[in-house]
C-alpha cells in the first residue's frame, strides 16, 4: 500500500496600504508633501527632528516614476526631509494644487508615490 503525502506550500502575502493626499499650492511652492494624515504608515525609527542634525536612525525608500530616493521624515513638519525629488516629481507629473497623489506602503521601509488624477 502506497501512502501519498501532500506537501503544503505557504505563500506570503503582502498587503499594500495606501492613502490619497491632495496637493496644495503650499506643497508646490515649498517642494514638499504633507504626510500628517498618514504618519501611521511609517515605522517609528524613520522620524527625525527639525534639522539635519536630528536625522532619524533609519530612512525609507520612496519610488516615484522610475526613480528612488532615500529619506527620513521630519516629525514636526510632517514631510519627507529630502525635497529635491518632490520638486522633480511635481514637475514631471505637471502637478497643480488640487491634484491627488497616491502614497503606497510596499514594505515597512519602501513606498511608492504617483499622481492619480488631475484637478481639472
Describe this structure in words.
The protein has 120 residues and is an alpha/beta fold. The longest helix is centred in the last third of the chain and has 10 residues, at 84-93. The protein is 13% helix and 32% strand. A hairpin with a 2-residue loop joins β7 (100-107) and β8. The relative contact order is 0.24. The protein has a single domain (24-117), classed as At1g16640 B3 domain, CATH 2.40.330. The protein has a 5-stranded mixed beta sheet with strand order 1-7-8-3-4, covered by helices on one side. The chain has a 3-stranded mixed beta sheet with strand order 2-5-6, with no helix packed on it. The chain is globular.
Strand content: 25-35%
Biggest sheet, open or closed, and with what strands and sense?
Answer: 5 strands, mixed
Strand order of the largest sheet: 1-7-8-3-4
N-to-C SSE string, H for helix and E for strand: EHEEEEEHEE
The total number of structural domains is: 1
Distance between the termini: 72 Å
- Assign the CATH architecture: Beta Barrel
The CATH topology comes to: At1g16640 B3 domain
The top level CATH class name: Mainly Beta
Roughly how much helix do the residues carry, as a percent range?
10-25%
Whole-angstrom Rg: 18 Å
Write down the overall mean pLDDT. Answer: 89
Structural class: alpha/beta
Question: With helices defined by DSSP (H or I, 4 residues minimum), what is the helix count?
Answer: 2
Shape: globular
Amino acid at each position: 500500500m502506497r501512502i501519498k503525502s501532500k506537501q503544503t506550500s505557504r505563500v506570503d502575502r503582502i498587503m499594500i496600504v495606501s492613502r490619497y493626499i491632495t496637493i496644495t499650492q503650499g506643497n508646490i511652492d515649498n517642494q514638499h508633501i504633507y504626510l500628517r494624515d498618514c504618519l501611521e504608515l511609517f515605522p517609528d525609527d524613520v522620524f527625525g527632528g527639525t534639522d539635519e542634525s536630528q536625522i532619524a536612525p533609519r530612512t525609507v525608500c520612496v519610488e516615484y516614476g522610475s526613480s528612488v530616493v532615500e529619506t527620513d521624515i521630519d516629525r514636526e513638519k510632517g514631510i519627507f526631509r529630502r525635497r529635491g525629488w518632490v520638486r522633480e516629481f511635481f514637475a514631471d507629473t505637471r502637478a497643480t494644487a488640487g491634484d491627488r497623489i497616491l502614497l503606497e506602503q510596499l514594505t515597512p521601509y519602501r513606498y511608492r508615490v504617483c499622481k492619480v488624477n488631475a484637478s481639472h
